[in-house]
Amino acid sequence: MSDKFNGIRVEFHILQSFPVSCLNRDDLGSPKSAVIGGIPRARVSSQCWKRAVRMQMHELGQPIASRTKLIVRAIADACLNAGATEEQAVQCGQWTAAAFAKKVENGVSDTLFFISDSECTGIAQKFAENSFREIKDKDLQKVCKGALNPAHDGLDIALFGRMVANAADMNVEAAASFAHAVSTHRVDPEIDFFTAVDDCRKEEESGSAHMGSLEFNSATYYRYVSLDLGQLAKTLKNDDLTAPVEAFVKALFLAVPSARQATMSAACPWDEAIITVRRGQRLQLAFNTAVRTSAEKPDLVANSIAALKQHFADAERMYGSLFGLKAKWEINQQTGSIDEVVGGLKQTLAAL
Prior knowledge:
The protein is α+β, with helices and mostly antiparallel strands.
């Protein structure tokens, strides 16, 4: 593997609007928010959108790993397939969980663990070679690390990283970095009051059987995502990044957080995206000044697009020779397509 991708990133500057929605809730059920430039904004956390991308990768046919506290059962099932008895399988699962987690009770660890099927199979094979007897913690961790196969079923581990407090050797540095999505403009949450009618009520009865309320908002979000090609190649141990980059870009384009989709169906495409391949540090564009509308410019999305282009041009000018631009695409709902971006990325990667 060469180092030709070191320091090179694919960066996505995305504007995406959603009408009535609640894509990401806080502990009180309200849409998440942040104050930026002294103005309240709508916010969707990076973790929320990363999970949506992981799930979308699966929908597109890409095998993904599992984030679970049920390590005992995952390893036990793999050991059963490797020829262990039920008792042996459960015991092997408990030994493995103890090697990765601080505390395990009733087959459930105290923390979520990111593990792929190939790692479970590798651990089970190691136990089978040892006649399903106990294996030292360090040896189990080495087996797990060696069995990780991002090209097969652990691409999401390579993209989003893994941190194991009790087994630092198993840590994987994330290739993809997600900023919190924030609205380009001021957003104040609103309240939806609703009622429900009992279909089986008597004719003489009136009124609702249930009343409730929930908060929602409407926003045009600026999303910044960076994909470190050098880190991805290092984790994959492969210079051929065509397939993983294509899977990530397509999932990023389609993914939408799943919250309240049945009642609000927030499934809007990108309004605008500037996508670059650059050598250099990450570059998020800060919408510190909230975008506004006026009688002359009443379109909030169009104003946000204009602001995005101006922010990008200003940053490119300021960085000068340090901007390190290799390729650039701009797509919106009038021109360009995600297929053109994927095709262009493939050509750019091949030419690096």
